[in-house]
C-alpha cells in the first residue's frame, strides 16, 4: 500500500495523508498497539516519530511511499524531530534516503538548528558533514551558531565557529 499524495500543501492533503497513515498503522496491529502504548500524538506525527527515534516506523512509512521530506501538520519533517533529539541512527537513515538536510520547518528552522538548540554535537557534525548550510537563518534571523551561543552550548560553539556563519 503506497501513499498517493506526493505534496502536502493544504489541510485537505494533510487530512488525506493522515487517514492513509492511520489505515496503515491500524492494519499493522503491532505498530498500532506500540503507538497507542506510548501516547502517540497525531498533531505532529512525523516530527514526533523523529523525536522518538522510531527508525522502524519511519522506514515502514518511507517504504510505503511517504516522501522523506513530507511536512506534517505542524510544518516539520522526521529529520527535524530526529535532529532535535540526537537520534543519529534515524538521522543517518533519513539522510541516506535523500532527506533535504536544509529543509525548513514552520519557523524557518533547519534540522541543524534543532540539533544545535538541544545540544547534540554528534548530530550537528553528521548534518554539517552531509552539507547542512551553517549560514541558514530562521524566521528570527538566527543561525545554528546563534542558537548554540544563546543557549550556552560551548562544545557546539567551538565546532560551529569554524564554518561560515
UniProtKB/TrEMBL annotation:
ANK repeats lie at residues 74-106, 107-139. InterPro entries: Ankyrin_rpt, Ankyrin_rpt-contain_sf. It comes from the Eukaryota. This is Uncharacterized protein. Keywords: ANK repeat, Repeat. Gene3D superfamilies: Ankyrin repeat-containing domain. The keyword Metal-binding does not apply. The keyword Repeat applies.
Amino acid at each position: 500500500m503506497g501513499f498517493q499524495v506526493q505534496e502536502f500543501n493544504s489541510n485537505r492533503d494533510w487530512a488525506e495523508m493522515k487517514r492513509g497513515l492511520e489505515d496503515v498503522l491500524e492494519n499493522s496491529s503491532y505498530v498500532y498497539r506500540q503507538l497507542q502504548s506510548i501516547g502517540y500524538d497525531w498533531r505532529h506525527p512525523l516530527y514526533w516519530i523523529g523525536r522518538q527515534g522510531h527508525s522502524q516506523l519511519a522506514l515502514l512509512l518511507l517504504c510505503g511511499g511517504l516522501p522523506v521530506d513530507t511536512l506534517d501538520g505542524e510544518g516539520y519533517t522526521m529529520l527535524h524531530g530526529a535532529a532535535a533529539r540526537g537520534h543519529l541512527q534515524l538521522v543517518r537513515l533519513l539522510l541516506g534516503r535523500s532527506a533535504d538536510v536544509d529543509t525548513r520547518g514552520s519557523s524557518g528552522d533547519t534540522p541543524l538548528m534543532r540539533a544545535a538548540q538541544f545540544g547534540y554535537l554528534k548530530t550537528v557534525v553528521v548534518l554539517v558533514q552531509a552539507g547542512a548550510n551553517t549560514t541558514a537563518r530562521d524566521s528570527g534571523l538566527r543561525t545554528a551558531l546563534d542558537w548554540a551561543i544563546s543557549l550556552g552550548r560551548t562544545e557546539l560553539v567551538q565546532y560551529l565557529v569554524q564554518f561560515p556563519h
